[in-house]
Amino acid sequence: MTVRTRVAPSPTGDPHVGTAYIALFNYCFAKQHGGEFILRIEDTDQARSSRESEQAIYDSLKWLGLNWDEGPDCGGDRGPYRQSERSEIYQQYAKQLIDEGKAFYCFATAEELEEMRKAQMAEGLQPKYDGRGLKLTAEEIAANLAEGKPYVIRMKVPESGSFKFTDYLRGEVEIPWEQVDMQVLMKADGLPTYFLANVVDDHLMGITHVFRGEEWLNSAPKLLKLYEDLGWEAPELGHMPLLRNPDKSKLSKRKNPTSVNYYRKMGFMPEALLNYLGRMGWSMPDEREKFSLDEMIANFDMKRVSLGGPVFDVEKLKWLNGLWIREELSDEQLVERLVEWAYNKETLLSILEQAKPRMETFSDLAPLAGHFVSGLPEYDPELLTTGKLDVEQVRPLLQMFIWQLEEQRSWDKDTVFGVAKQLSGHLELKIRDFLEPIFVAITGKTSSTSVVDAMVVLGSDLTRARLRVALGHIGVSKKQAKSLDKAYKAYKASI
Ligand code: GLU
């Protein structure tokens, strides 16, 4: 048997370090067994998926050196590897499940289901789908279908007893069926949910081992039951511990940068980031902290993953990166890395566009353009409010600007300025005043080159990171966070 593992990210938003982490462990497991590692794009959520985000996944995994043997970009024998191109396959299996009485149609409208939930809650019950679709007669179903009523397809699950399975990392796990809902497999738009698509694909793509995040553990009974219902042998499942913030909460971009692009832009070495991710829940037999991907593969043992939530601590990562720079790169190699990173012609040309009009001597470049090649600039936080606006104005401005930028799929001058202009209008601020604290957050100064151009050159990840640091200086209490959330929703509804 050839070991085949995969990583199956959904292309929504930034390429997450969690995706790189899961990819790394699946990659090591496959390579250690002389097997294959596959990249599948799970883009069935059409509203949230984008090609930009898919591209960012390719770029970030390649940058890290986690190359896949089969995938949407390079093909393979078991494609297509993008779920949006596999609709007919899923429909065929959904139909099979219906025909064999293992899944059923449900024609309930969103309003009806909402009423059902409310009624259950009023009785003090946990809201749960009540199996109403199962009560329809064959005639009623045929009539509804003939009428063209919208429907979803749900899977049947036992109502009592419990489901036991052996997790590759956790040993025996038991989950009562009572906790498992009659999962929707096909949505009203004819597209599958994660559950059906994931099972069908892992089977047809010959995946032998699935190591996925712990957040999927409670879904295991549904997935394994689907394999059974479809008459297939299931792959081995292992659920990896979730990465955590230093305060032990689930790693989130509110507390830590989570985009691989951020670490790239900050000037981390891909080898060091991989090394650090490799230490999340795993260690070398001799406990050495610094090791390469090849060394990790040579010593890899999936069974030694420890399940206590590993803490992703940027300070430790920085320390490790420093070791990599000093111990692994010759001066010549460091020069090459720096050039590749930002001191290259292309980046310098875009910086010069900003700096040249203000230069009198060559030596003006560094003070004028330092913020283009630095990570998070240091400045006196008071500067954020020395302009026209006070803290109460700067706080919502920064927070809403960050949220709005997070949602942008393209990153150019029109986009960034457009967001600033629209938000400043909404907050009834002059664009000049609006941009003042942003200027400080981005450049660390009160005067320098154009801030909008700087944001474009810096890119989305570093821009947002700097804005987040500024917001951190201003401070947001729990209560303020709640009202900002509300204000942002109102703003979104108004545009
Ligand atoms: N698309 C899912 C995710 O991004 C994949 C989970 C899995 O590996 O099955 O989390």
Report on this structure.
With 495 residues, the protein is mainly α. Helix content is 47%, strand content 8%. The protein is built from 20 helices and 9 strands. It has helices at residues 17-32, 51-64, 87-99, 110-122, 138-147, 194-204, 220-229, 260-265, 270-278, 293-298, 314-328, 331-341, 345-355, 365-369, 391-406, 413-426, 431-443, 451-458, 460-474, 478-494, and strands at 4-7, 36-39, 103-106, 152-155, 162-167, 171-176, 184-186, 209-213, 236-240. The strands form 4 sheets. It has a 3-stranded antiparallel sheet with strand order 3-4-7. Helix 1 (17-32) links the parallel strand 1 (4-7) and strand 2 (36-39). Helix 6 (194-204) crosses helix 7 and helix 15 runs antiparallel to helix 19 (460-474). The longest helix has 17 residues, at 478-494. The radius of gyration is 26 Å and the shape is globular. It starts with a strand and ends with a helix. It binds glutamic acid.
Helix content: 40-55%
Main pleated-sheet profile: 3 strands, antiparallel
Order of helices and strands: EHEHHEHHEEEEHEHEHHHHHHHHHHHHH
The unreliable regions are none
Shape: globular
Distance between the termini: 55 Å
Nearest-angstrom radius of gyration?
26 Å
Cross-sheet strand order for the largest sheet: 3-4-7
Bound molecules: glutamic acid
Assess the beta-strand content as a share of residues. 5-15%
In total, the number of strands is 9
Mean pLDDT: 95
